[in-house]
Design brief:
The chain is of the alpha/beta class. It is built from 15 helices and 20 strands. Helix 3 packs across helix 5, helix 5 runs parallel beside helix 6 and helix 9 packs antiparallel against helix 11. Bound molecules: ligand BES, manganese (II) ion and zinc ion.
Length: about 500
């Protein structure tokens, strides 16, 4: 298990396998650590820079052997990018690449100082840098090997990242920072684990058990409703999705009360389809296996509640996960069927593959019972979002400018950026039904928007924002601190929004 430690001292005096040295791109002047290392190694950094194989671009790394007079074995040069663009994201990326390089080399103990990653950048304080460094390292080193039975055991692992700081005051700030970064990144990695499990091992029942276990360990209350209770609530839309599956639905409720008694909670609703086959409107077989990721919103919600509780945020927060499979069978819903939602509104089914909004509609309406300060939903809702925004922006729609502004600001900070799309009335035309109050699909045009318009009908007058993560919840290629696979995106985003709301 990766361990973070902090001590006062000078990093060059540490007996570690490698020391990380941050370097800005095209900087006239190196930071103090880089300058010192350069001098100790007889101008080795200058030599590397003049060869241009390493220029300090963000995500670049290079390795120098240390001299025998030093206790460390290697220096890993970490590109921080252009100094004028310096920010926490550059630090996360640089740290991610550095630890991956160290792991590749089979190294175990890494020494680092926050100073060498913020060198000269006055607007980044050591505590914030430490959060970003812990996150970058812990997120980058994530692996999921549960099902690689024969490959387990011989994988390389970094054991310790030692922060060595030159002042007592910094030590205290860095300690706090890495604790926070650890909680947040562990919560993201926990969500990644949930998402990575194949659907046969992540049924609604198993998801509920996992939620309970996590909740218990983090001091969060967890209540799980099963079919009779869900029926009693009248959640006909959500139950409609589940009726074709052999796996029973589970409505998971997480409650964390860190705020004042009676203070309005923030309710987070996560789409939790443990497998989306499309139902009778079945999906093409190619790539269908990816639909085990259709509970990414729910996984992020569990991560948010865990971290919020462990960070003791002074807020009341509720997480709702309407978990179910979407399967075709003799008992499945059909196109043309009409369902009655908990809100009383009736829904004509156009496509059984537009199941997310059905499950969410009842969960959103249930959320209004809390008289919440905000409702945030997070969902792998539409393929249209992937077409519109690709894999770098989360689709955002909502009915409250203040909440959307806060979300956008949080997104910039954690680099889980959102892009707004309109929620104009004109689009509601597309989901008008001749037989029911609305239909569950507005066709191909503006698919992100019509899905969100559908959801908007169920939040009453509550301030609400919807995050469509269909395009960002999963990546094909490794990024600096995101290995290919589920990103658990939205976890850090919603947490940042909550932290900023305290
Ligand atoms: N879970 C899918 C959306 C999705 C697609 C997520 C690809 C990630 C990658 C969702 O339930 C779905 O099937 N949506 C349909 C809606 C349509 C039938 C209106 C879609 O996007 O095709
Ligand atoms: Mn679907
Ligand atoms: Zn789906």
């Amino acid at each position: 298990m990766l361990k973070f430690t902090v001590k006062e001292g000078h990093v060059l005096r540490e007996r570690v396998d490698a020391i990380l040295v941050g370097i800005y791109e095209d900087a006239g002047e190196k930071g103090p650590l880089a300058a010192e290392v350069n001098r100790l190694l007889g101008g080795a950094i200058d030599k590397v820079l003049s060869r241009k194989s390493f220029t300090g671009k963000v995500e670049q790394t290079d390795v120098l052997e240390a001299r025998e007079t030093l206790p460390a074995s290697y220096f890993i040069l970490c590109g921080l990018g252009k100094a004028e663009k310096a920010g926490l994201e550059q630090i996360r990326q640089a740290m991610g690449r550095a630890v991956l390089r160290a792991r590749e080399m089979g190294l175990k103990r890494i020494g680092v100082s926050t100073n060498s990653f913020v060198c000269g950048t006055e607007n980044i304080v050591a505590g914030d840098a430490a959060v970003a460094m812990a996150e970058g390292a812990n997120l980058a080193l994530y692996t999921f090997t549960k099902y690689k039975v024969k490959e387990n055991g011989n994988s390389k692992n970094i054991e310790e990242i030692r922060f060595v700081e030159d002042e007592k005051k910094t030590v205290t700030a860095v300690k706090k920072g890495i604790e926070k970064g650890r909680i947040i990144s562990d919560s993201v990695n926990l969500a990644r684990d949930l998402i990575n499990h194949p659907a046969n091992d992540m049924t609604p029942t198993i998801l509920a058990e996992s939620a309970k276990k996590t909740a218990k360990a983090a001091g969060v209350k967890c209540t799980v409703l099963s079919r009779p209770q869900i029926e009693k609530l009248g959640m006909g839309a959500y139950l409609g999705v589940s009726q074709g599956s052999e796996e029973p639905p589970r409505f998971i409720i997480l409650e964390y009360n860190g705020g004042k008694k009676g203070e309005k909670p923030v309710v987070v609703v996560g789409k939790s389809i443990t497998f989306d086959s499309g139902g009778i409107s079945i999906k093409p077989s190619e790539g269908m296996g990816k639909m085990k990721y259709d509970m990414s919103g729910g996984a992020a919600t569990i991560g948010v509640l865990r971290a919020a509780s462990m960070l003791r945020l002074p807020l009341n927060i509720v997480g709702l996960l309407p978990a179910t499979e979407n399967m075709p069978s003799g008992s499945a819903i059909r196109p043309g069927d009409v369902l009655r939602s908990m809100s009383g509104r009736t829904i004509e089914i156009i496509s059984t593959d537009a199941e997310g909004r059905l499950a969410l509609s009842d969960a959103l309406f249930y959320a209004t019972r809390y008289k919440p300060r905000w409702i945030i939903d997070i969902a792998t809702l539409t393929g249209a979002c992937a077409v519109a925004l690709g894999s770098h922006a989360i689709g955002m729609l909502g009915n409250n400018k203040d909440l959307k502004d806060r979300m956008a600001a949080a997104g910039e900070k954690v680099w889980e950026r959102v892009w707004e799309m309109p929620l104009w009335d004109e689009y509601a035309e597309q989901i008008k039904s001749p037989v029911a109050d609305m239909k569950n699909s507005g066709g191909r045009e503006g698919g992100v928007i019509t899905a969100a318009i559908f959801l908007s009908k169920f939040v009453e007058d509550c301030p609400w924002v919807h995050l469509d993560i269909a395009s960002t919840e999963w990546i094909d290629k490794d990024r600096a601190y995101m290995p290919a696979g589920p990103t658990a995106i939205g976890t850090r985003l919603i947490l940042q929004l909550l932290m900023d709301a305290c």
